[in-house]
């Protein structure tokens, strides 16, 4: 079987499908060897791998059992939802089953019996895996599409959410946004989040059932109407910032904000015809494997890329152990048509095990020490294996040795610290009076003035004399007639006679204090 696979790989023309294979066994002048290509898994029906959650609790109909009507037949309310009867229940899983012979199975909400309180429901789809959308998201509503809804997405397994598209029969009224159509977007606005009125207007509940998130129309901006020019799309996906991420999701959420009304007004006397019913949610996409895998399998409840190119991780987002002689990189669609694998590499064979943790891709042999050492370590690392942090940096304890963020700058305050080095937890060594991890604070009784200086005066330690008052612990404000740092000296200009007399009783103390102060004040008195 393996032989056959190898043979097939060898024989299959590359043109069969773009980026379909990760490697092939080729014969060159130097003999046969593997050649590597950028590769990606096939697109799949992602609804088969999804976990769904519907909020709030109690929004699914049937507990207690409830009757409902339809817009077509508002006074013949014979339909019943009963969660305890499998034939009459409408649980969330019916949005993802395969429909037999046209008989729609659907999730259904409770009716709008609490009107005018809004009827709100969230349907959250989670994959626990990054997915790249390759076709439209299509949501099918039985009994009418919502008049207001919103699509949100997450890229980090539901930790943060972002608007993806707004839907309303009146965008201005519902979201204060002008109505736009995806078809009217241009190459520079292909990843714009917009509000559309195309899927919310009443057209009879049987006729128009679908709400779309138009992936194809956005692709067509680059690839042309029939998506014939995929090369152009792939080129743009590599070069336009944020474009790839725009089509990438780990989770999707439909926020249903107002049901179909079947007319302009809500008929209060018959609220049993207002509810949501979703029969299908189609999401077509491929696992995001960073162009390092062409297979994605469902294992232990989650999708996982089968990584090639000596990469590993759920998305092939890092290099395998012992293949870290250069930093990990995603594969690239460019140059066309086969792209670049950007494979992780084992340390060069010439230098047995020169491990640089991905911070250098060069090793050198130092003759007189008889060691092989990494050259030009990047990411602020140093050492034979780039395993230490440069001076002025410290080890990031939450990062692996091969992480680009492994070394964090000490950032010692230049004035407050002795030097720009810090200890293993990022603490700098402070000069006298300074404190704090970066030495940018002062100890009590010191104040900051381009460094920490002791207080000149305060209410406890050093009092201003002769009725002077302490100003911001920095200087004494002296009463008329006195001067000096502590107001210890009387002014004599007014009455020369006094100056000829003996110094005041406090003279000797003042002199001592002045001496102490002079030491501390040198730094700022003349500033
Ligand atoms: C739906 O989700 C949004 C966040 O995406 C949240 O603010 C809102 O309260 C949720 N609504 C319901 C009905 O759970
Ligand atoms: C998500 O996927 C990861 C990696 O496959 C797995 O370790 C984790 O248990 C999964 N989490 C959930 C909630 O399924
Ligand atoms: C990955 O490592 C294996 C050895 O385990 C090697 O044979 C193969 O060529 C490597 N692949 C790439 C793409 O470097
Ligand atoms: C430490 O490393 C982690 C993991 O890479 C990173 O998320 C974090 O930002 C790093 N911390 C700093 C301060 O750079
Ligand atoms: C770093 O210095 C701080 C403050 O002096 C100290 O609390 C901490 O224990 C030191 N860390 C190490 C690893 O020495
Ligand atoms: Ca169904």
Q: Catalogue the unreliable spans.
A: 1-16, 500-527
Q: Count the DSSP helices.
A: 7
The CATH class label of the domain at 59-287 is Mainly Beta
User: Please, what is the CATH homologous superfamily of the domain at 59-287?
Assistant: Galactose-binding domain-like
- Global structural class: alpha+beta
CATH architecture of the domain at 59-287: Sandwich
Compute the CA-based radius of gyration: 36 Å
User: Could you say which overall geometry the principal axes of the C-alpha atoms support?
Assistant: flat
Give me the CATH fold name of the domain at 59-287. Jelly Rolls
What small molecules does the structure contain? 2-acetamido-2-deoxy-beta-D-glucopyranose, calcium ion
Indicate the mean pLDDT: 86
How would you sum up this structure, described in words?
It is a single chain. The chain is built from 7 helices and 36 strands. With 527 residues, the protein is α+β, with helices and mostly antiparallel strands. Among the domains are: 59-287, Jelly Rolls; 455-489, Laminin, CATH 2.10.25. The strands form 14 sheets. Strands 3, 4, 8, 10, 11, 12, 14 and 16 form an 8-stranded mixed sheet that branches. The chain has a 4-stranded antiparallel sheet with strand order 7-15-9-13, with no helix packed on it. A two-stranded antiparallel sheet has the order 1-2. Helix 3 (215-223) crosses helix 4 (230-239). The longest helix is centred in the last third of the chain and has 15 residues, at 507-521. The chain is flat, with a radius of gyration of 36 Å. The model is unreliable at 1-16 and 500-527 (pLDDT under 50). It binds 2-acetamido-2-deoxy-beta-D-glucopyranose (5 copies) and calcium ion. One 2-acetamido-2-deoxy-beta-D-glucopyranose is lined by residues 55-56, 120, 122, 152, 161, 253, 255.
């Amino acid at each position: 079987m393996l032989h056959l696979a190898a043979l097939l790989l060898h024989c299959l023309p590359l043109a069969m499908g773009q980026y379909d294979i990760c490697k092939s066994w080729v014969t060159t002048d130097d003999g046969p060897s593997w050649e590597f290509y950028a590769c990606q898994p096939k697109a799949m029906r992602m609804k088969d791998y999804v976990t769904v959650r519907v909020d709030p609790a109690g929004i699914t109909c049937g507990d207690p059992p409830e009757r409902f009507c339809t817009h077509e037949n508002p006074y013949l309310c014979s339909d019943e939802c009963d969660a305890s009867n499998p034939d009459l229940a409408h649980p969330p899983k019916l949005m993802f089953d395969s429909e037999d012979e046209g008989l729609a199975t659907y999730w259904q909400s409770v009716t709008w019996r609490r009107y005018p309180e809004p009827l709100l429901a969230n349907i959250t789809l989670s994959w626990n895996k990054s997915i790249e959308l390759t076709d439209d998201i299509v949501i099918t509503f039985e009994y009418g599409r919502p008049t207001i809804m919103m699509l949100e997405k997450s890229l980090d397994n539901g930790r943060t959410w972002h608007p993806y598209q707004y839907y309303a029969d009146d965008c201005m009224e519902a979201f204060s946004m002008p109505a736009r159509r995806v078809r009217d977007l241009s190459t520079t606005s292909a990843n714009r989040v917009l509000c559309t009125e195309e899927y919310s207007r009443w057209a009879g509940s049987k006729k128009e059932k679908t709400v779309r998130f138009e992936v194809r129309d956005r692709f067509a901006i680059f690839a042309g109407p029939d998506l014939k020019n995929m090369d152009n799309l792939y080129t743009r996906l590599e070069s336009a910032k944020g474009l790839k991420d725009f089509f990438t999701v780990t989770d999707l959420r439909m926020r249903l904000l107002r049901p179909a009304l079947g007319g302009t007004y809500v008929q209060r006397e018959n609220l049993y015809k207002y509810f949501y019913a979703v029969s299908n949610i189609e999401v077509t996409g491929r696992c995001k494997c960073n162009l390092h895998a062409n297979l994605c399998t469902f294992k232990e409840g989650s999708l996982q890329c089968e990584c090639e190119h000596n990469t590993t991780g759920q998305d092939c987002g890092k290099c395998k152990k012992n293949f870290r002689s250069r930093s990990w990189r995603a594969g690239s669609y460019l140059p066309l048509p086969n792209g670049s694998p950007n494979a992780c590499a084992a340390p060069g064979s010439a230098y047995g095990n020169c491990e640089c943790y991905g911070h250098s891709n060069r090793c050198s042999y130092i003759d007189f020490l008889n060691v092989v050492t990494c050259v030009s370590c990047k990411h602020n690392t140093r050492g034979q294996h780039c395993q230490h942090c440069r001076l002025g940096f410290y080890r990031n304890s939450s990062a692996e040795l091969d992480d680009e963020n492994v070394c964090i700058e000490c950032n010692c305050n230049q004035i407050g610290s002795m030097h720009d080095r810090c200890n293993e937890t990022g603490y700098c060594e402070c000069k006298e009076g300074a404190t704090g991890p970066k030495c940018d604070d002062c100890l009590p009784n010191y104040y900051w003035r381009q460094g920490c200086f002791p207080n000149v005066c305060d209410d406890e330690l050093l009092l201003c004399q002769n009725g002077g008052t302490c100003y911001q612990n920095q200087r004494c404000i002296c009463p008329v007639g006195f001067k000096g740092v502590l107001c210890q000296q009387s002014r004599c200009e007014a009455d020369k006679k006094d100056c000829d007399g003996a110094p005041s009783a406090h003279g000797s103390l003042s002199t001592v204090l002045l001496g102490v102060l002079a030491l501390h004040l040198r730094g700022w008195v003349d500033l």
